[in-house]
Design a protein that fits this description.
10 helices; globular; four-stranded antiparallel β-sheet; eight-stranded mixed β-sheet; alpha/beta
């Protein structure tokens, strides 16, 4: 197809904050006006500190949360306001992989039942056809057929991730949202899982939205990188350009925190100061200004828009 496979336009997801008596006393703006696009076959990375809203963004795109405002377009179709029955037609093509690989697996079911379930719900295949499909997908993610008779607790973390991938691949999706897919894994297991992601992307023509806090992994996996802070995208550019010359102060601070053996970092003397502000009481103007060593008066008075700067999109008055 021509054009992006996924687009979000001013997408927002807010959560009501209520008092002990149940009264609404405010709103937590977890995702607050995000515009981005993902092209077919691309891997777009989404990074930021814990609590920045990146997982909420992924779950809103996947339909787990309903958007508060804005649009979600998938293959040119607006899907953010679909009814549950209509959403099922999209679910086959747009899948979400949870950070906890066991979260999508029923502990009472053997692996074979977990893999059969999506095919029972979404396809008219016979039992024999489903079994053949399940066995083929399991081999595609590098697991033997014998694992079909195991329970989730009998698998390692890496094996559970492979089963989780197999479960969504049975539906042949076009877009897969990977939420912290390598967290909690040993380095050697991480390497094999990342290699698996690349192989599956080529074999099944997948597009990835890759959510992670691990910048080293994102650097290897993603063609473009979106940096998120307190519900907003603050920088969006080619991954190589972000690592070579980060433009937003927050991006520079994140890269300064990446461990490095030998060599010299571009941003080694750009520390991240303090803690993020309360998301229920965001600062005026730029949301990062309370932690930014470069902040000026304009940063408090005016919220910076995401604008083009030398091939990148940056939300900073000083960029």
């Amino acid at each position: 197809m021509s054009g992006p496979l996924l687009e979000t336009i001013d997408l927002a997801r807010h959560f009501s904050v209520r008092s002990a008596l149940g009264r609404r006393v405010g709103a937590l703006r977890a995702v607050d006006g995000v515009t981005l696009s993902v092209s077919p076959g691309e891997t777009l990375g989404l990074v930021g500190e814990s609590g920045c809203g990146k997982s909420t963004l992924g779950k809103t795109v996947a339909g787990i949360f309903a958007p508060t405002a804005g649009e979600i377009r998938f293959a040119g179709r607006e899907i953010g306001r679909l009814r549950p029955r209509e959403r099922r037609t999209v679910a086959k093509e747009l899948q979400y992989v949870y950070q906890d690989p066991g979260a999508s697996l029923d502990p009472r079911w053997k692996i074979k039942y977990s893999l059969h379930e999506p095919l029972v719900i979404h396809t008219p295949l016979s039992r024999a056809e489903r079994q053949a499909e399940v066995e083929a997908i399991l081999r595609a993610v590098g697991l033997p057929d014998a694992h079909l008779d195991l329970y989730p607790h009998e698998l390692s973390g890496g094996q559970q991730r492979r089963v989780g991938l197999a479960r969504i691949l049975t539906l042949r999706p076009r877009l897969v949202i990977l939420d912290e897919p390598t967290s909690g894994l040993d380095v050697s297991v991480q390497a094999s899982v990342l290699k698996l992601f690349r192989g599956l992307q080529a074999e099944f023509a997948l597009t990835y939205l890759f959510i992670s806090h691990d910048l080293a992994v994102v650097r290897v996996m993603c063609q473009r990188l979106a940096v998120m802070y307190l519900g907003k995208i603050v920088e969006l550019a080619d991954t190589a350009a972000v690592f070579a010359a980060p433009r937003h102060p927050y991006t520079r601070s994140l890269l300064a925190a990446v461990p490095q053996i030998g060599g010299r970092r571009v941003t080694r003397d750009f520390p991240l100061m303090g803690e993020p502000p309360n998301p229920r009481a965001l600062p005026s103007g730029c949301r990062f200004r309370t932690r930014c060593p470069l902040a000026v008066d304009r940063c408090a008075a005016e919220e910076p828009a995401l604008r083009a700067v030398d091939g990148a999109l940056v939300a900073c008055h000083l960029a």
